[in-house]
Amino acid sequence: MSGFLGIDWTHPASLGYPVIFGGVLLGSIVPVVPTGAVVGAGAAIAVSGGNLNLALVIVVSTVGALIGDLVTFGAGRGGRGSLTRWFERRQSQEKLDNARERFGQRGWLLVVIGRMVPAGRIPVLLAAGALDYPWRRLGPAAACACLLWALAYSALGVLSGGLFDNPLIATVIATFLILIVTLVIGLISKRREARKHAGAR
Question: Could you tell me which residues come within 8 angstroms of residue 191 by beta carbon, excluding any fewer than 6 positions away?
Fold first, then answer.
C-alpha cells in the first residue's frame, strides 16, 4: 500500500529513510559517522532493488546535512564565549581581517568547497560563524552545497548499485568506494595545503 510520496511506509525498507537522515544529521554535527558512505549506501540500495526511492534518499540526505551544517554554523556564530575566543586566539588580526574579506567576497564558494572536501566543512562553518557571516548568505550557500554533496555521493552509490543487483553487495561496494574516494580527496587536499605553506615561506 502506497502512502505519502508513493512510498509504502509499512514496508520494513522504509526505515531506511530515517536511518539515512539520522546518520547524516549526526555525522554533520559530530564527525563520528562517515556521512558520504551513508548516502552512497542508501543510493546503492535504491537502484539495486532494495525498495528505497533514489530521489527521496537524496532529499533526506540533503535536509539532514543542511540541518547539521546550520547547527555547526550556529555554534560558531553564537559562541561569543569560549568557541570564538579559541578561534581568534589562533589567528593574527591580519589573518582574521583577510578571512572576513574572503568570506565577504566569495563566502558561498568557501562553504561549498568546505562541504565537498573531507575535514573541511566544520572549520569553514565555525570560521564563518565566528566571523559573523550573515545567515541570509549562509543558508542558500549551505543548501546548495548540501545538495551537490548528496548528488555526488549518491552518484557513487548508483554506480556500484548499477553493477550489482544484490542490495547488500551494492551497499558494501558503495561504502568501500566512497571511503576510498574520500581518502584520496583528503590526501590531495593535504598536499595542496602543504605546497601552499611551502611556497609562502
Answer: none
pLDDT-wise least confident of 37-41, 126-130, 148-152 = 126-130
What CA–CA distances, in Å, run from 22 to 11, 15, 115, 127? 19, 11, 18, 25
Domain residue limits, the chain: 4-200
Taking the C-alpha atoms of residue 95 and residue 151, their distance in angstroms, rounded to an integer, is 34
Q: Are 150 and 41 in contact (CB under 8 A)?
A: no
Taking alpha carbons only, the member of 22, 8, 4, 1 closest to residue 52 is 8
Which set of grid coordinates corresponds to residue 108?
558561498
Backbone angles phi, psi at 91, to 5 degrees: -130, 140
- What is the tens place of the pLDDT at every residue in 80-137? 555 555 555 655 556 556 666 777 778 888 888 888 877 778 888 888 887 788 899 8
Q: Which three cell numbers stand for residue 102?
A: 574572503
- Greater confidence (190 vs 47) lies with 47
Residue 17 above 80 pLDDT?
yes
For residues 82 and 128, is the Cβ–Cβ distance under 8 A?
no
pTM for this entry? 0.77
Residues contacting 189, CB < 8 A, separation 6+: 117, 118, 119, 120
